[in-house]
User: Which sequence fits this backbone?
């Protein structure tokens, strides 16, 4: 709808008001998708602390359940990684009689405390190629730096080994544990896997004691929203289950 300002004087005010309301509704509502939002205390919304060290937020509807799990130490782990990525574990369980397409590549994470910066999920295959290229480039740069500064050989090689080991573990994890696009149905009702987001941005600074996030996980006909805080309460601590070897 186009409204020409020069013609407004000839149009009665009630008509102008009605046109503006129609334009607002059309602009904001024509592509709107219903939102299913995790809200504490609401029916179908749960929160648990697992002995595996993860917080879990889950939303249950008539035909689908979505669970979000985040490591209680994810903030600390993110800053210790060479690739400063933030990871979440998602599980989707379909209880309908038809089909449900799951496309993790449309997932976003909003860093609420950092100017509401929104990051799209990383594609596991593209991201693996990117970090492997960084490792190859670093190897070449390290060799060059050692030739220029042989006295720093041990330091440079140690850093390169650490980086290459992390890249190897990361690419292997991305290949085997990432959430992939899938179509769920009664015979194949569940899928789960990890999704990662970059945290490098001029708008994302150091972590605060408590960080607030908003994860949006869309389907074709609705969006699941998970507002969550790490830790959920100040000083919150999970006692992890000890692994027996």
Assistant:
């Amino acid at each position: 709808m186009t409204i020409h300002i020069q013609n407004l004087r000839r149009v009665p005010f009630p008509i102008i008001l009605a046109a503006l309301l129609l334009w607002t509704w059309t602009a904001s509502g024509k592509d709107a998708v219903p939102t299913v939002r995790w809200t504490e205390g609401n029916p179908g919304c749960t929160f648990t602390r697992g002995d595996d060290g993860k917080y879990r937020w889950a939303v249950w509807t008539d035909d689908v359940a979505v669970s979000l799990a985040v490591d209680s130490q994810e903030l600390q782990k993110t800053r210790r990684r060479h690739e400063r990525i933030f990871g979440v574990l998602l599980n989707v369980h379909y209880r309908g009689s038809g089909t449900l397409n799951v496309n993790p590549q449309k997932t976003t994470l909003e860093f609420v405390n950092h100017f509401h910066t929104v990051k799209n999920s990383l594609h596991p295959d593209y991201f693996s190629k990117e970090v492997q290229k960084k490792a190859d480039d670093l190897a070449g740069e390290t060799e060059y730096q050692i030739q220029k500064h042989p006295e720093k050989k041990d330091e440079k090689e140690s850093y390169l080994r650490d980086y290459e080991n992390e890249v190897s573990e990361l690419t292997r994890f991305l290949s085997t544990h990432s959430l992939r696009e899938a179509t769920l149905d009664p015979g194949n009702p569940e899928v789960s896997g990890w999704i990662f987001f970059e945290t490098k941005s001029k708008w994302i600074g150091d972590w605060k004691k408590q960080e607030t996030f908003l994860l949006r996980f869309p389907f074709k006909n609705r969006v699941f929203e998970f507002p969550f805080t790490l830790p959920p309460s100040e000083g919150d601590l999970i006692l992890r289950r000890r692994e027996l070897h």
Remarks:
- The longest strand covers residues 85-94.
- The chain has four helices and twelve strands.
- The domain at 33-123+177-230 is CATH 2.60.40.10 (Immunoglobulin-like).
